[in-house]
Structure formats: structure tokens, C-alpha cells
Amino acid sequence: MKRWMKWGVGVVVVLVIGGAVMRALGARKASTARAAAALTVQPVLNLGASDVVLLSTRPLTRTLSISGGLKAVNTAIVKAKVSAEVKSLTVREGDKVTAGQVIGQLDVSELELRLKQAEQTAASSRAQLDIAKRALVNNRALVAQGFISATGLETSISNEAAAQASYGAASAAVDLARKSRNDAHLVSPITGTVSQRLVQPGERVNIDARLVEIVDLSKIEVEAAVAPEDVGSVAIGHNASLRIDGIADTVQAKVVRINPSTQAGTRAVMVYLALTPHPGLRQGLFAKGSIDVQQQNVLAAPLSAVRVDQARPYVIAVIDGKAVQRPVTLGARGNGAVDGRPDILVEVGGLPEGTVLLRGSVGQLRDGTAVKVAAADALSAPAGAASAGTASAGTASTPGRAASAAVAASTPR
Prior knowledge:
A hairpin with a 6-residue loop joins strand 11 and strand 12. The longest helix is centred in the first third of the chain and has 38 residues, at 3-40. Strands 3, 5, 8, 10, 11, 12, 13, 14, 17 and 18 form a ten-stranded antiparallel sheet that branches. By secondary structure, the protein is of the alpha+beta class. It has helices at 3-40, 109-145, 150-182, and strands at residues 44-47, 52-54, 56-79, 84-89, 96-97, 102-106, 185-187, 192-197, 204-205, 210-226, 239-244, 251-262, 269-275, 286-302, 314-319, 322-327, 329-338, 341-349, 356-358, 369-373, 407-408.
């Protein structure tokens, strides 16, 4: 083979190998570029309609937190009106009684003897009165005949008056002794339930000793102490929602009275709320809730949508398809409704009405995260246009399910 042909074959081989190497380098570079482009695509967080809420004007009911004990409006304590031994007591705690029902008896032995003594004294006074009256009649006749002086007649008149007074006192003593005997019957003054039985048969009790306590559970109030700076906003007729120990449901109440005086030491003012009849209410239970003191229409959002993990409160708004942190100013707080459900609302300033906010159930997101809201057309109308609910302050929770955690990353082909 000629020499120039050998050199030609070598050059061709070198060119073929170089071309293959260049094609391999180009393919590797293109693959690296595609991988880099895929890494630069930002993931998109898919959100449901329940994960967002519109910042809109809503009725907000400002509330005043209260707490206090339950107390029956009508209570009675049966006391001993005479000093005697308890002969019988037919009721115990939890028994129902009616007004006028005899619930016990004191021993009347001593009282019967005192009554007989008073009656005998009255009879003696009656006899003395008869004698004085007959003497007065005789003396009047003697004065008319001139046998005695007028002074003797005056003495007879005075004796008759004294005998009349003695008989009246003796008669009153009889009535008093008879009343004492009747007071030995223990009678319930009201209809209700026995809450305390303080004595047992056989015990000797003194006058005004406490025997039985009766409460009427048909009317129960809450006695709540309100600070002097807050009592000015409370008025008779304001509604309240209360949570009571042992009762699962929220119990409604209404302010019926406000004490005109303050409590010594604390300067608090007692406010009395009448409870709506509800099974399970008992005197002495503890109630906690809030009074609806004012209602106004404000630009508000659920309290759970406001984040407070930074120096200033802020919300996460959806702007141009991205989750953006925006600082806000907070105003009045109270009860309201979002999407027809009771919730705790807070007045929000610093953002225009209609801004889409992420609920607290979504959790924390990096500023600038791409988001996509499903059923975005449903958010075109202001949410929460329903009237304010009556949720108890501090107990309502933000409606909405957890955010969809599916992140779709689109990679260019």
C-alpha cells in the first residue's frame, strides 16, 4: 500500500473518532441542561377551597369574657322557730318537696305544757275581771244612793281596767303558746329540691337553728364579677353563651340585673344572667363564656388565619399565584361566621377587601411558594356573608380541612 493511502486512512479514523466524541459531549451537555432546567421549576402547592378564605366585610360581635357560679333564684332554709328536740324529719338530699308540705316535726311536750299554763293564767285573769266588773256595777248603784263617795267609784273603775288589761295579756300569752306549738310543724315554704339536711332526729335545736335547705332549680342565674372598666359596655338584655361544667352543650343566657354597688376589695360589679332552662343545671356549678356586648360590620378574617410567630402579626395571601407574607394591623375581636359556620374573627387592616388568605390549617409556607387554588371561581363572592353566629369566645375552631399536600413538579421534555 502506498504511503499516502496509509496517511489518508489514519486521518479518516481520527475524524470519525473525533465526531463520535463531539456527539457524545453534545448529548451529555444537553442532558445536563435539561436536568438543570428541571431543577429550576418551582413546585406548585394545590389548595382546596376550604384552605383559603376571602378577606371581606363581616358582622363581628364583640364579646366580654365572664365566669361565675350558678345560683338558684329561689332558695329557702327551714329553721327552728322554737327550742325543742327534733322528733322526725322525713326528707333527705335530693327529695322533691312542694310549698306547704310538712317535712318534719319537733317535740311538743314542753309546748303543750306551756299552752296549758297560759290557758290557766288566762282563766284566772278572766275570773278577776268578772269580779272587778260586778264590783264596779255595785259601786255605781251605791254612789247613786249616796252610800259611798265618788272616790270609791273611781277606784272600782281602775280595778276593772286593770283586770281587763291582765286578761288581755293572759289571752295574748295563750295565742303565743298556741303559735309556738303550731311552729313545731316543719313546713316547706317553696316548691323545690332538698339540697341539705343539717340535723337528725333526736337532736335538740335552738331557735333559728338551720334544719333543711331547699332550692328551686326551675330558675337559675349566673353571678359573674365584671371589672369596673368593662361593666359600662354591659346592658340588661344582652345575650351570652356559656359553657358549664358537666354539660356538653352551650347554654344561652341573658343579662337580667346589674348590681348598683361594687364588691369590697376587688371593686368588681356583679352581673346576673338568667339561664335558659336546660337539663343538668345545678346550683354551684361553674360557668365560663362571653357576653355579646356590641355588633358591627368590619373587614375581618378568621383569627386562625393570622400568624403571630414574627415580631408583627401577618397573613399569607395568595397574590399572582404565589403565597406572599403581608403584615397586617389587628383590631377588635369577637364572634362571627365564615361560610355559615361560627368562628372567632378579628378585624384586619392593611390589605384590600377581597384578598385571598390561607387558613391556619395550611401551615407555614415559604414566602413566594407557587400555589394553585381549586375551584377559584367559588371565591369570587365574599365569603361569610351570613349573620354572626353565637360561638363561645375561645372555643370556636377555624373551619376547613387540611391543605392538599400534593406537589406537582412539571419537568420540560
